[in-house]
Design goal:
The chain starts with a helix and ends in a 9-residue tail after the last helix. The longest helix has 29 residues. By secondary structure, the protein is α/β, with parallel strands linked by helices. The chain is built from 7 helices and 5 strands, in the order αβαβαβααβαβα. The chain has a 5-stranded parallel sheet with strand order 1-5-4-2-3.
């Protein structure tokens, strides 16, 4: 009997962790913010589409071993709301422009997308796979700010 109760508790704990892990993705999808793959982003860039890429990793990750997409704006997800307030005038023209949100894998991007959406940005997509996927695809990266 003890083992069955223990297994039930472990299973419930795992289910809660999985639910919390995917909650930002669920919220982003509910807002209509789609996930696109790295190849779609690269194709849009190669076609000359003016995309604002917002990379929500830390500054150290942005310039670290995965690099970043040339021209990306680095806005750390942990301080995104305050950064948006500080940059409100500079970012205002981009509220209706296409924006790609990326992080290392795509775990922080959905939460950041929700924050951006709440601040009036409407043409958002999340780059599935993040910079890890971008690197696996062999696409070019920059390392300096």
């Amino acid at each position: 009997m003890f083992q069955a109760d223990t297994y039930k508790m472990v299973l419930i704990g795992v289910m809660v962790i999985v639910f919390l892990r995917f909650l930002p993705r669920i919220k982003a999808k509910m807002l209509g913010i789609p996930f696109v793959n790295v190849h779609d982003v690269k194709q849009r860039m190669d076609a000359g589409e003016a995309l604002l890429v917002i990379d929500v990793r830390t500054a150290g990750e942005f310039t670290g071993n995965l690099g970043h997409i040339e021209g990306a704006l680095n806005l750390d997800a942990s301080a995104l709301s305050s950064k948006l307030a500080d940059l409100a005038d500079k970012l205002e023209p981009f509220k209706d422009e296409p924006i790609v949100i990326t992080c290392r894998t795509d775990n922080r991007s959905p939460g950041a997308a929700r924050v951006l959406f709440q601040h009036g940005f409407k043409n958002l997509v999340i780059m599935g796979g993040g910079m890890s996927g971008w690197n696996r695809a062999g696409y070019p990266v920059a390392y300096k700010r």
